[in-house]
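cron nightly-structures :: item 1 of 1
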Amino acid sequence: MLVAGVTGRALAASAARGGHQVVILDYFADRDTCALASACRSVVSPRGLRFDRRRLLAAAAELAPLSHSAGLVYGSGFEGRIALLTRLASGRRLFGNAPEVVAAVRDPARFFPLLDRLGILHPEVGFSPPADPRGWVVKHPGGSGGAHVRRAEHSRVRGGAGAYFQRVMPGRPCSALFLADGRRTLVIGFNEQCHSPARAGLPYLYGGAVGQIPLPPTVEADLRIRLDALVSATGLVGLNGIDFLLHEEAWSVLEVNPRPTATMELYDPDYDRGLFDAHLRACNGELPPGTAPARAARASSIVHAARPWQVRDGFGFPAWCHDIPQPGTRFAPGDPVCTVAAEGVDATRAVALVRERQLATDRTILEEAACAVSA
């Protein structure tokens, strides 16, 4: 099975739980990703964090040739690369949303009018710069991880190139992870997200999440009903995520992520065969009879480099870290380094522990960087 995305570690770990052998093509080829995969290769562009088209297609042809490929599963990184996704999927069985479905739900000119027709609330959206940009953000529908969102008053982007504007509304940034079969949904869990201050000018950069958060009963019931309607209207299949704001007894949609999201690892250990296997089955029209009982509440947090740093051979990351970079990897301030994980009896305790572990990891890396400079 070919798996492609910004990072493939969580998908590889889940696939292993279900006995699926995978080839991973992602940006980082981290150590733990390579250990979980039959083969793993970095296909990132040397000019920035995006796929290198030539390297991606060449690696796919070499490591997962059409004659030996069981199919394709993709993660983030293709929202703005529909043509590349189409090319990668050509000749392979696609386990995920078809490129035209991705294009439709990520096109604000089609997506938000659809929400209006379905009676699903969302913040006000515009396609030209507002007269007063304060209180608005500008978004690029092809992005992910919050790097595509900037405050309109601080942005040089004044529309065009597919950009759109969205009014800032009060509320907690939340998400739902769900399985879909093109007609119905099964919500795996509700999550609260946090933003990272690691990079100036990117106030909505994804910093992590905690699962198993409770919603007001009226909100949860309404969200489940309207999510079914959205899936029926779009044909979404497999694992997907929907980002929304929760404000008291109301919720409003920000966007849909039409592929497995980072929050899948907050629930994967609860499923004996993993959510990768459930994703494959949902793409074939088979939803589980219900969600698995939660064994714990889990949280994750992204560690970003605070200063320039290079991973030396032999440096040991704490045991609670995932996405472990290869020795020799260099980081500029603000670059993602690794992921910290924690779990607890409830979301509050999981968040407290993951924050404690992130601070400890930050200190360890800063001390290592300082030692390298002094040496």
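cron nightly-structures :: done
Residues 347-374 form the longest helix (28 residues).
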